[in-house]
Amino acid sequence: MPILSGSVTFARFRVEPAKEGHSDLRHGFARGLKTNAFEPLDRKSDEDRSAGFAELENPDSTEFAPSNLFYGERALFCWRVDTLRVPSAHARDELKRWMLAFEKEHHRRPSKVERSAARANIRDELRKRATPNSKNHDVAWTIGAKQLQIWTGSRKTVDEISVAIEGAFAVKLVPMIPDTLATKAGFADEALRPTAELVGIEGEEANHGEA
Amino acid sequence: MGKRESARQDAAFAKGAVGVDGQATEVEQKDLAELEHDKAREQMLRGRTWLGREFLTWLLWRSESGDPVVVMDKAGVEALFVGRVVLRGLHGDVVELSAKGTLAPYSSQVKRALDAGLLLHSARVRFTSGERTWEAALDAEFLDIRSAKLPELLTEEEDDRLSERLDLADQLSAMVNRLLESFLAVRAARAWSREVVPDLKKWMRGEDEARPPGSTVQRLAARGRAREP
Q: What is the distance, to the nearest Å, from the Cα of residue B149 to the centroid of all Cα atoms in its chain?
C-alpha cells in the first residue's frame, strides 16, 4: 500500500462532473465503488484476471463502510488486480513427463491430438494449484478540492483505473499535464505553439503545433 | 496445386502481401531514420508534450542561480536538478540523450545539447520551501510524480502520519502546478520570444556570464526602481 508507506509515485487528475453526474459525490460513494467492486477469480471459469475496487487497508473487503473509506476530506481505496498465471516452463516440464509416461505405456509417441489434449489438461491442473498474484494500486480522492491521485507507476494501470472511476461515478478525470493546465488557465493555443528556436521545428510545422 | 500451397496463397492474400493476380504487392518502406523521426515527432506532439519539455528546460535555466523560482504560501520555492536527465529532440543524429552525474543537468555538455535542439524530457528535481525538502522525478509528457522523497514526518499517530504523508504529497503536487503556471504565464507573454528565448539560448551557449538567469526580472525591477522619485 504505497499510500501508507513506500515509494511515492502517482498520476494526478482533476475531477470534473460529467454531464449527467451527480454533484454530491460523498453521498452514494460506496455505491459507486460497489458497481465495480473486486470479485475473486473463479477457478472454474476461463478468466485469468480479475480487477475491481477494494478497501485500502483490507483489500479482501468490498464493504466500503464510511469509517474504512473516508480519511478526513479524502476518500481512500484501492484497485485490486488478481492474476492467475501458469508458469510456461513448469507446464512444459509436466508435458515432457507425461510424454515419457505415455511412450512407456503405449510403446509409441503420442499423436498431435493426444498431446494437445494433455497440454490442456496439464494447464487446467496447474491453474487449479496456482496461487493468484495480487496487486493493489491505491487511489486518493480529495473530494472538496476535486483532485485525485492514482498511486502506481504503470501508465496502463492508470488508464484502466481512470476509466473505471469515470464509469462508476459519472465524472471526467482530466490529467494534470501541461496541455490541460494551459487550457484550464485560459491560455490561447496560438500563444503556446512550439518555440521554433528551442524545439528545432520551423515554419509551418511550428505554426501548426498539432500537426 | 496442393492444399497446403493453396492455403499459403490465401493467407498471403489475406495479409495483403499479394494481390488478386498472385503477384507481390508493393510495400512502401520508410528508411530507419525517417521512422525514428516520425516516432520522435509523434512523441513530442502527443498531448502538447513540447510544453512539458520547454517547462523543464526553462526550470533548469531558472534554477541555476539558486534563487526561489516561485513563491507559495509566503515562502519561496527553490528547485535544483539532481542526478540523471534525459533530453529528447526531433532533428539531427541524436533524438535522445541521457546524462548522469552529480552536476550533469548544469554541465556544459547538456547545455550544448540543449542548444542543438534537444530539450529536457525527464529529470529528478529537488524542491525546497522553507526548511522542508521534497525530491521527485518528473517527465514532460504526464508530469507524474515518480519515486518522490517527502520531508520527514513529524506526527507519530498512525492515522495522523497517513494524513501528513498525503498532505506532503499534495504540497509537492501543488508546487509542480505552481511552477508550471508560472512558466505558462511567461511562455504566453510577448517577452517569451523577445527576451526569454534569446536569454535561454545565450545561457545554453555559455554566453550569459554577465547576465544571471534572473536577468529579465532583475532588469525590469531595476527599471522600476530608476523611475521612482
A: 19
How far apart CA B183 and CA B53 sit, in angstroms, is 11
Burial environment of residue B177 by CB neighbours within 10 A (0 to 12, 13 to 18, 19 or more):
middle
Return the closest-CA partner of residue A11 out of A176, A163, A185.
A176
pLDDT tens digits along B147-157: 999 998 888 77
- For CA atoms B115, A176, B147, A53, give the dihedral sign: negative
Tell me the C-alpha distance between A44 and A151, whole Å.
32
The answer to whether the Cβ–Cβ distance between B136 and A8 falls below 8 Å is yes
Spatial separation of the C-alpha atoms in residues B40 and B89, rounded to whole Å:
7
Query: Whole-model pTM?
Result: 0.80
At A73, give phi and psi (nearest 5°).
-85, 0
Where residue A64 falls (left for φ over 0; alpha for ψ -120 to 50; beta otherwise) is: left
Q: Break chain A into its structural domains and give their ranges.
A: 11-84+140-176, 88-129
- Identify all chain A residues contacting B143, using CB atoms and an 8 Å cutoff: 12, 176-178
Instruction: At B187, list the grid cell.
Output: 511562455
User: Do B173 and A187 count as a contact with CB atoms less than 8 A apart?
Assistant: no
CA distance A9 to A70: 21
**Whole-angstrom distance, CA of residue B87 vs CA of residue B34:** 20
Contact state of B144 with A12 under an 8 Å Cβ cutoff: yes
Name the grid cell of B85: 536527465
DSSP state of B141: T
Which run of H or E residues covers position B172?
helix B158-188
How many Cβ atoms are within 10 Å of B206's Cβ, its own excluded?
A: 11
Side chain identity at B42, as an amino acid letter? E
Q: Pairing between strand B70-72 and A171-175?
A: unpaired
- A38-94 tens-digit pLDDT: 999 887 788 889 999 999 999 999 999 999 999 988 999 999 999 988 888 989 999
**CB-closest option in A10, A185, A194 to B184:** A185
Paired sense of beta strands A8-17 and A49-55, if any: unpaired
